[in-house]
Each structure stands twice: as structure tokens, then as C-alpha cells.
Specification:
Chain B: One of its GO terms (biological process) is respiratory electron transport chain. The structure holds two protein chains of two kinds. Chain A is an alpha/beta fold. Chain A is built from seven helices and eleven strands. Helices cover 28% and strands 26% of the residues of chain A. The model of chain A has no long low-confidence stretch (mean pLDDT 95). The chains are: A alpha/beta, B mainly alpha.
Chain lengths: 254, 79
């Protein structure tokens, strides 16, 4: 086996930022807004780097799709311990329409090109919340998938994955090559410290275009409208328990 | 300043950017702390101060991680 792991990392609006919808409801405001690596992608990178540190795999390659700024996210992955990066350049209209189907096609093509043993992705991105890319990538490659992974152990040419599912945990054993998607409790991602960021500047980031991989990026989806979630109605404060009971009766809940 | 520790002023400054009370607040306190101890020569004292810097560094990393973890847990996992 090649011992090479591909990790997909997505640049998203930072989790702590208050999201604003554009006045024309066509999307959210991204200009001048703080961006960072998707938290679940951080967990994916950490898992790959840990495998390398345990000498279970040989190389971690970080992949990101998007305009020039996607390189910042790749740099963060390199600072966390990835060996090199691949920036798939997608910008303008194509980037607006970039979704899980297009990204999975890209990941599948790169997996073949790089002879990857594993692909590790975050389970979902905090902006799109699709939770589809990992699954689609596995399907396109006809590889097994271990999604919502909260524990991963490599066992020769197989992988044991403990998955977080409704109602508990499921343990499966799948063949490699395989696609894994990282869940919150898989690990604790390391912080990309300044010295590591400096060192990462020496690592290579290769630039490719989807066309170079022979891929069609057409989207079959059209975003019609983006709206803010409904405002939460203000709560009402009551003075005594009797008031509370009265209010509950009023609204028909008692 | 010993470059082999993780606690040089630029590294701590970088780490302190997202301090809850503000990156500026952290920067000012950091500058004051380093200025106050500028003249320290005693190796034992220096080791202690570096230790303190490393402690701050670890506390910040833990703070940032917990904040993010709790936000993700709240948003994605029904308790």
C-alpha cells in the first residue's frame, strides 16, 4: 500500500462569527469576514497526522478546492503536520456552485492520481452542513466508507471504525482503500503554532485545475434563496409559581 | 530570548490574538510582563518565567479548543 492519506480541508466562515445574509437573499456575506478551517476538517487532519506519527502511514496530503485563499487553509494543515498540499483552483461562478458532488469528483480523481490508501474528510462543513462529500467520494471510487468516525484503528489492510450513530456506537471493519469522515470526538486537533506555520512555508503546495483532472464541474443545483432562521420569540418572565401555572394554562400547555 | 522554548514574545502574541477579552488586552498585558522582567539574569528565575510562559501558552490552547468543542457540541449534538 502506498501509505498515502488524502485529507480534504475546507475554508469556511469562522465558527464564532455571526452570519449575515446578503440583502438580496442570494447568500451570506463573506467579504471581509474571518475565515478558518472547518472544525471537522481540523479533526480529519489531526487523525492523519497522528497516523503518520505512529508510523502507520507515510505521507499526509492536504487538499482544498477554491480560489487563492484556499491556500491559507492548506497552510494550516501543513502547520499541523501534513507533508504537502494540493490546491484545486476553482473561482468565480464555478466556486459559487461548488458543492459536495463536484468536490467528491475531485477527491476521487486525486485519490486515483495519488494512489491514496485512505481519504479522511470532516463529516460535514459548518457552512453547507451537507454531510455528503465523504459518502459520495466513496461511492464514486467504489470504496468502503467509515463515516461519523469517533475511533479509527488501522489493522493491516483493514480499518476498524467506531461510528457515532443514533442511539449509540457501531463498530465496523472495512477494507482499504477507504473513505473516513471525522466526527467531533475522534481526537483533539493540535493548535497550529507560529513556529510550525513558519516551517510549513517550506512545504510544497501543488496547484491544479479541475479541467486538468478531466472533470466537469457543472452543478445540478440552483440556490433559489437564503433566509435567516426565524427570530426566537422573546421569553416572558413571571414573578411566582402561580403566575407560571396560569401562563401555562393560558397557552394550553397544562 | 531562548528560541527553543515555545514562549517567545511573537509566539505568545500570535497565540493571544483570540483572547476573550481581546487581542489588544492580551498584547498590552504581555508587553508589561516582558518589560517588567527585562533585566532578569538569574538562570533559576529565568526558568521559572519560561515555565510561566509555557503555562499561559497551554492554557490559551486549551481555552480555544474548549470554546470550539462546546460550540460544535451545542450545535450538532442533541443532549
Amino acid at each position: 500500500m502506498s501509505g498515502r492519506v488524502l485529507v480534504g480541508v475546507k475554508r469556511v466562515i469562522d465558527y464564532a462569527v455571526k452570519i449575515r445574509v446578503k440583502p438580496d437573499n442570494s447568500g451570506v456575506v463573506t467579504d471581509g469576514v474571518k475565515h478558518s478551517m472547518n472544525p471537522f476538517c481540523e479533526i480529519a487532519v489531526e487523525e492523519a497526522v497522528k497516523m503518520k506519527e505512529k508510523k502507520l502511514i507515510k505521507e499526509v496530503v492536504a487538499v482544498s478546492c477554491g480560489p487563492q485563499q484556499a491556500q491559507e487553509t492548506i497552510r494550516t494543515a501543513l502547520a499541523m503536520g501534513a507533508d504537502r498540499g494540493i490546491h484545486v483552483e476553482v473561482s468565480g461562478k464555478d466556486f459559487d456552485l461548488l458543492g459536495p458532488l463536484q468536490v467528491s469528483k475531485i477527491m476521487a480523481a486525486l485519490a486515483k492520481k495519488e494512489d491514496a490508501q485512505l481519504i479522511i474528510l470532516g463529516k460535514q462543513a459548518i457552512d453547507g452542513d451537507c454531510n455528503q462529500t465523504g459518502q459520495m467520494t466513496a461511492a464514486l471510487l467504489d470504496w468502503p466508507q467509515g463515516t461519523f468516525a469517533s475511533e479509527v484503528s488501522l489493522e493491516g489492510d483493514k480499518v476498524k471504525v467506531v461510528r457515532e450513530i443514533d442511539g449509540g456506537l457501531e463498530t465496523i471493519r472495512i477494507n482499504t482503500p477507504a473513505v473516513l469522515t471525522a466526527d467531533l470526538r475522534l481526537n483533539t486537533p493540535r493548535y497550529a503554532t507560529l513556529p510550525n506555520i513558519m516551517k510549513a512555508k517550506k512545504k510544497k503546495i501543488e496547484k491544479v485545475k479541475p479541467a486538468d483532472l478531466g472533470l466537469d464541474m457543472t452543478s445540478r443545483l440552483e440556490v433559489l434563496r437564503v433566509d435567516e432562521p426565524p427570530q426566537r420569540l422573546a421569553g416572558v418572565k413571571v414573578e411566582t409559581v402561580a403566575d407560571l401555572v396560569a401562563k401555562l394554562r393560558e397557552t394550553g400547555r397544562l | 530570548m531562548d528560541q527553543s522554548t515555545g514562549v517567545t514574545p511573537p509566539q505568545l502574541l500570535y497565540l493571544g490574538r483570540e483572547y476573550p477579552k481581546g487581542g489588544d488586552y492580551f498584547r498590552d498585558r504581555l508587553r508589561a510582563a516582558f518589560t517588567k522582567n527585562k533585566g532578569v539574569q538569574d538562570p533559576q528565575q529565568i526558568r521559572e518565567l519560561i515555565g510561566r510562559g509555557e503555562f499561559v501558552s497551554q492554557e490559551l490552547e486549551a481555552l480555544y479548543y474548549l470554546r470550539k468543542y462546546r460550540a460544535m457540541k451545542k450545535r450538532y449534538y442533541e443532549e
